[in-house]
Amino acid sequence: MSRVAVIPVPLATCCTVLSCFGVAILLVLGAAFDANVEVLMGHSEDPKDGHAVAQTCYSAAIVYAVFIALCGCQAFTGVRYKKPAVRL
Predict the structure, then answer these.
(1) If pLDDT is split at 50, 70 and 90, which confidence band does 7 have?
(2) Based on the structure, what is the number of domains in the chain?
């Protein structure tokens, strides 16, 4: 296993935080579509099958969860194995 972080720590941390928000929002939207909330399903131009849209939201949340795991590992690796400072 390589002990080098491919993604810099600040970027990996940002990705992890944003992915956490993405998972939360997608899970709430998926639950709302699954419950056929009137605001989301009541208009004629809205999707007809709320359950199918909810499944898509849940699938996207899984993708974001994978990003949380990968970027979290990169952030942890970058913090744990810091590169030595270059001395002039």
Answers:
(1) confident
(2) 1
Tell me the residue range of the domain where 62 lies: 9-81
- For residue range 26-48, what is the model confidence (pLDDT) as tens digits? 999 999 999 988 887 777 676 77
Q: pTM to 2 decimals?
A: 0.79
* Euclidean distance between CA atoms 41 and 47, whole angstroms: 7
Instruction: Give the C-alpha distances (Å, rounded to integers) separating 73 from 46, 58, 59, 66, 85.
Output: 39, 23, 22, 11, 22
Judge whether 1 lies within some domain: no
Distance, CA of 15 to CA of 76 (rounded, Å): 13
Q: Running DSSP on this structure, what letter comes out for residue 44?
A: T
Name 65's Cβ contacts closer than 8 Å, sequence gap at least 6.
Answer: 19, 23
